[in-house]
């Protein structure tokens, strides 16, 4: 019997060792996975379901803006032939309780004129009736359908008072805008469409401008060096719809004294400032021969819209330097809302998404 007990003991030990080798680690792994899933489920129950809007405005570390990139990511230019602009008949009409606001602006302008000062120039503009996106059938290139309606600068200034109280206690923002539907807004609240251009010189310097304190909208903030609004008088000959590339070339000429043969021009994106309801076509322009010193010399001999710029910086155009510049203590909260997205898209256009995002992540971690 003792021999049998010994044999059984040995056999049991061997079987136990085999069992441990074959099954212990899988069982431990299964137990670990079960514990991990259980802990994850408990955490999920504790915090509840998480969700967020599909549309988020542009941000980069501590830099937060109200710029919503509606179409384009910088990697591929949007062809001019896929942009369809239609100008509607009939001017924008303000709601009756906002009409007095426009009258106030007209009276203010006449008062300035009577004092011998420069009145507010009531230039003809366009309002955005709708902005629709689709794709071409074969290669899925972005196709843009932009419907514009005539308006003027006084109407634009009246509609910019989005947080002013109306007689019933509401504001234009609370009455007419839904934050969950950022692309939907009445035309009278969207009386601004402009082109913004990131200009890079032949020696790889990004041209950045601080807006003059003399401009009425966003004085003193840092912005693209070319910012040009659509003009019904200048950009639409006869009844023709404006051409965004032509508007961009006009801006290059008026703000930097540059002619079309001196640069390449790519349309990168359409962007909306959801706070002020300003639409923008974001462009990237690269000078083919003019270096930063040449551009400074050119501008010293005269610029049509010199008064719009207070300061111009020339920033080495590479991901690390531009991102650090955006994050500078004296810049990070002083940007025009649409500018940081423009410079990011231009970097992506020139260097590719991965190197730019890697540089952004490295710099943000060090802040």
Would you mind describing this structure in some detail?
This protein has 10 helices and 13 strands. It is of the alpha+beta class and 367 residues long. The strands form 3 sheets. Strands 3, 7, 8, 9, 10, 11, 12 and 13 form an 8-stranded mixed β-sheet that branches. Helix 2 packs across helix 3. About 3% of the residues have low confidence.
Short description:
The protein has 367 residues and is of the alpha+beta class.
Features:
single chain; 367 residues; alpha+beta; eight-stranded mixed sheet; 37% helix
What order do the helices and strands follow? HEEEEHEEHHEEEEHHEEHEHHH
Care to count the β-strands? Answer: 13
Evaluate the radius of gyration: 29 Å
Number of helices: 10
Structural class: alpha+beta
Question: What fraction of residues sit in β-strands?
Answer: 15-25%
How far is it from the N-terminal to the C-terminal residue, by CA? Answer: 78 Å
Largest sheet: 8 strands, mixed
Residue-averaged pLDDT, rounded? 86
Considering DSSP H and I runs of 4 or more, what fraction of the residues is helical? 25-40%
Which segments are poorly predicted (pLDDT under 50) over 5 or more consecutive residues? 18-23, 31-36
Global geometry = globular
């Amino acid at each position: 019997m003792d021999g049998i007990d010994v044999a059984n003991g040995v056999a049991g030990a061997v079987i136990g060792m085999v069992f441990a080798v074959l099954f212990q680690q899988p069982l431990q792994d299964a137990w670990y996975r079960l514990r991990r899933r259980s802990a994850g489920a408990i955490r999920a129950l504790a915090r509840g379901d998480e969700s967020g809007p599909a549309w988020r405005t542009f941000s980069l570390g501590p830099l937060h803006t109200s710029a919503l990139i509606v179409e384009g990511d910088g990697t591929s230019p949007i062809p001019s032939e896929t942009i369809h602009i239609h100008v509607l008949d009939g001017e924008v009409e303000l709601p009756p309780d906002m009409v007095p606001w426009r009258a106030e602006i007209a009276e203010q302008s006449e008062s300035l004129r009577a004092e011998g000062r420069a009145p507010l120039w009531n230039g003809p503009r366009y309002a955005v009736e709708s902005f629709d996106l689709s794709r071409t059938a074969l290669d899925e290139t972005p196709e843009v359908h932009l419907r514009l309606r005539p308006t003027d600068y006084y109407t634009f200034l009246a509609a910019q008072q989005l947080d002013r109280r109306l007689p019933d206690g509401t504001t234009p923002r609370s009455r007419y805008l839904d934050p969950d539907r950022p692309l939907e807004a009445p035309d009278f609240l969207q009386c601004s469409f402009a082109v913004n251009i990131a200009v890079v010189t032949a020696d790889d310097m990004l041209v950045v401008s601080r807006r003059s304190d003399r401009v009425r909208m966003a004085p003193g903030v840092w912005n693209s060096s070319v910012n040009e609004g659509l003009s019904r008088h200048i950009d639409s000959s006869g009844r023709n719809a404006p051409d965004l590339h032509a508007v961009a070339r006009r801006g290059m000429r008026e703000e930097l004294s540059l002619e079309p043969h001196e640069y390449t021009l790519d349309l990168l994106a359409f962007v909306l400032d959801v706070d002020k309801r300003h639409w923008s076509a974001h462009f990237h322009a690269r000078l083919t021969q003019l270096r930063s010193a040449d551009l400074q010399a050119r501008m010293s001999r005269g610029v049509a819209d010199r008064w719009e710029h207070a300061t111009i910086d020339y920033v080495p155009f590479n991901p690390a330097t531009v991102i650090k510049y955006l994050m500078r203590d004296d810049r990070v909260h002083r940007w025009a809302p649409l500018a940081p997205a423009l410079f990011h898209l231009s970097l992506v256009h020139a260097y590719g998404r991965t190197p730019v995002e890697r540089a952004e992540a490295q710099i943000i971690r060090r802040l």
